[in-house]
Specification:
By secondary structure, this protein is α+β, with helices and mostly antiparallel strands. It contains 18 helices and 31 strands. It is elongated, with a radius of gyration of 32 Å. Pfam families: PK_Tyr_Ser-Thr, Stress-antifung.
């Protein structure tokens, strides 16, 4: 009897230990998002840095628990390269108990998900924990990540405007908060009248930022919302220095927020265990064995299985994107990529330290260099300018979109580099540069006979068709122009530069933006004037490009006496004068009566693409069919865009030589921030 009682006591003790151990393992919820930085050196288990980090994390709860300022804290431990710098921040509306509870989860989980990195950041709903071996106090870090769900609001335009106004108001409030004990946090809500919806939002900066830095950090992230998360009902954007969130349901009421930890049944107390043992002593030995041993063994097996599952789930390696990152909410839509990441030294060696001799071209985004990788492969290296206001957005767009797209008429992305403030994309090298290098040059255009030009037109059309309809994603390019059409060694066309591109969700046919981007002369009027874009706005750009290939003229360089005329207006006028005048449109360096019908048909298709009425323009599927089959009867084009009547009733859309102003269009101003370039060759 005594032996069985001792055995029962030992089993209960083992059960208690396992319950406590398993509770500690299962009580750790996943981060909403985390980053593990690999470029600051490796962290090994027995290193001095690891010891300093463990000491700091183990004492952190008691340090902050005794501080009046529990919502933001920074502390260091160690010296020189083994020094650990740590920042801790709770959301501004969170109670102290919930804040410290979130801290305990973070300090246990972050070293586990980032075991080999000296710099890591983890975000929960309520808090952020960050540590590094480099100085991070008072230094704004603008590396960012956005997550959102798949649901969309009813009135996207109004919702975007209301959300933007609310965010800007909160930004000013949060940035103006000062004082060591005050958190740079602001929250509020606004109503969206059309859908009887409300939007709830908060913004927050770390306390070590100045008012100007906080303003800048939040302003940059707010400006990305229309491009990353247009019209979605829930959005979060993270940086190590600031963060923001909006939702159509309340989430920041400090009186009713729930703890992020999972609720667990408490382990059996010593009193309960003692009572159980006393009860066991009054029973027979066989009853004790059945009542205690069998359930205990079953529980042990169950708990061990649970622990093994948790352990292996934790051991799974996170996906790579820019830096290692994690995300836990099932309704968020994050699409990581698996593109090769180059280190900066490899890029430096490939370009001979960004030698001017290796420069291929330059645009508003930065400079493109020719490079040679260690394996001998020639590549085009696109280095985004640090001064570009939209650089982060363009980099993210190209990396996320182009890495998923595979088509013979799209430039192929080979990899990227994101180190020490550099944003670099590595593409396949295309030896014949871009289309504008040929068609607008009086000598080089002689190399493009009609057959080559027609092959280029077909290639561009097939590439656009793939973007609009045939790929897994529906992409609107938004900046199709001659300088963004690259040519390989066989003069096959490849569409490039997806920095301005937008992704459409399934069944979405149009979108709108407050930030008009693109190039003068190529933008459809509904987009340039009102920010409305669709596949038909790309069709318009294709139409302009087709007319440029046929005519050899850029928009705005057709001289008619003392006037400079828009290519669309000039072509429309000649077309309306009759077929004899249509030959005046064609580049005479290649014109031959042998191809007269084919050339005329292309001009006809170009005018169909640039019609003023969006609904009248064909889709790219129809355009490809028109190009490939002469049996398809072409409709009569209606009035082209940007064509007006002068006082004499003549068609006109030009300006006098020497007069200032845009020759093609005027963009809206005020609330709509324009980002528009002039069509100069690279």
């Amino acid at each position: 009897m005594a032996a069985m009682t001792i055995a029962s006591e030992n089993l209960l003790l083992l059960l208690s230990v396992l319950v406590i151990f398993t509770s500690l393992a299962t009580s750790q919820p996943d981060f909403v998002h985390y980053l593990c930085k690999d470029n600051n050196g490796n962290n090994t288990a027995n290193s001095t840095y690891s010891s300093n980090l463990n000491t700091l994390l183990s004492n952190l709860s008691s340090i902050i628990g005794t501080s009046n300022n529990y919502q933001f804290y920074n502390v260091s431990n160690g010296k020189s390269t083994d020094k650990v710098n740590l920042i801790w921040m709770c959301r501004g509306d969170v109670t102290k108990d919930h804040c410290l509870s979130c801290l305990n989860d973070s300090r246990i989980l972050l070293p586990n998900v980032c075991p080999n990195q000296k710099e890591a950041t983890g975000w929960y709903d309520y808090c952020m924990l960050r540590y590094s071996n480099r100085s991070i106090f008072g230094i704004m870090d603008s590396n960012w990540w956005a997550i959102h769900n798949n649901m969309h609001v009813n009135n996207v335009n109004e919702f975007n405007q209301v959300t933007a106004d609310l965010m800007q108001s909160l930004r000013s409030k949060a940035a103006a908060i000062s004082g060591d004990s005050q958190v740079k946090f602001a929250a509020g809500n606004a109503s969206v009248a059309a859908g009887f919806e409300h939007v709830y939002a908060h913004v927050q900066c770390t306390n070590d930022l100045s008012e100007l830095e906080c303003n800048d950090c939040l302003a940059e992230r707010i400006s990305t919302i229309p491009d990353c998360c247009n019209g979605t009902v829930r959005v979060r954007i993270f940086t190590p220095s600031c963060n923001l969130r909006y939702d159509t349901t309340p989430y920041f009421d400090s009186l009713s927020v729930l703890s992020p930890q999972s609720s667990l049944s408490p382990a059996p107390s010593s009193t309960t265990a003692t009572a159980t043992l006393k009860q066991g002593k009054s029973n027979s030995s066989s009853t004790t064995v059945i009542a205690i041993v069998v359930p205990v063994v079953s529980l042990i097996i169950l708990l061990l299985i649970t622990f093994v599952c948790i352990y292996f789930r934790r051991k799974k390696k996170p996906t790579k994107y820019f830096e290692t990152q994690g995300e836990s909410e099932a309704d968020y839509e994050i699409e990581p990529i698996e593109t090769l990441q180059f280190d900066f030294q490899t890029i430096m060696d490939a370009t001979n330290n960004f030698s001017v001799a290796n420069k291929l071209g330059e645009g508003g985004f930065g400079i493109v260099y020719k490079g040679r990788l260690p394996n001998g492969e020639e590549v085009a290296i696109k280095r985004l300018s640090r001064n570009s206001e939209q650089g982060d957005i363009e980099f993210k767009n190209e990396l996320l979109l182009v890495a998923k797209l595979q088509h013979r008429n799209l430039a192929r992305l080979l990899g990227f580099c994101l180190e020490i403030g550099e944003r670099i994309l590595v593409y396949e090298f295309l030896p014949n540069k871009s289309l504008d290098y040929f068609i607008f040059d009086p000598v080089k255009r002689l190399l493009l006979d009609w057959e080559v030009r027609y092959k280029i037109i077909e290639g561009i059309a097939r590439g656009l068709l793939y973007l609009h309809e045939d790929s897994q994603l529906r992409i609107i390019h938004r900046d199709l122009k001659a300088s963004n059409i690259l040519l390989d060694e066989k003069m096959n066309a490849k569409i490039s530069d997806f920095g301005m591109a937008r992704l459409f969700i399934e069944n979405q046919t149009r979108g709108s933006t407050l930030r008009v981007v693109g190039t003068h002369g190529y933008m459809a009027p509904e987009y340039a004037l009102h920010g409305h874009f669709s596949i038909k706005s790309d069709v318009f750009s294709f139409g302009v490009l087709l007319l440029e290939i046929v005519s050899g003229h850029k928009n705005g360089d057709i001289h008619n006496g003392e006037y400079v005329e828009h290519l669309i207006s000039f072509t429309w006028k000649k077309w309306m004068e009759g077929s004899d005048s249509a030959s005046d449109i064609v580049d005479q360096t290649f014109y031959s009566s042998r191809f007269r019908n084919e050339i005329t048909r292309c001009i006809h298709i170009g005018l169909l693409c640039v019609q003023e009425n969006v609904a009248d323009r064909p889709t790219m599927a129809t355009v490809v069919m028109m190009l490939n089959s002469e049996s398809v009867i072409l409709p009569i084009p209606s009035k082209a865009a940007y064509v007006t009547m002068n006082n004499a009733g003549d068609l006109s859309n030009g300006r006098r030589l020497g007069e200032s102003g845009n020759y093609a269009l005027q963009t809206s101003s005020g609330a709509n921030e324009a980002s528009i370039t002039d069509p100069h060759p690279r």
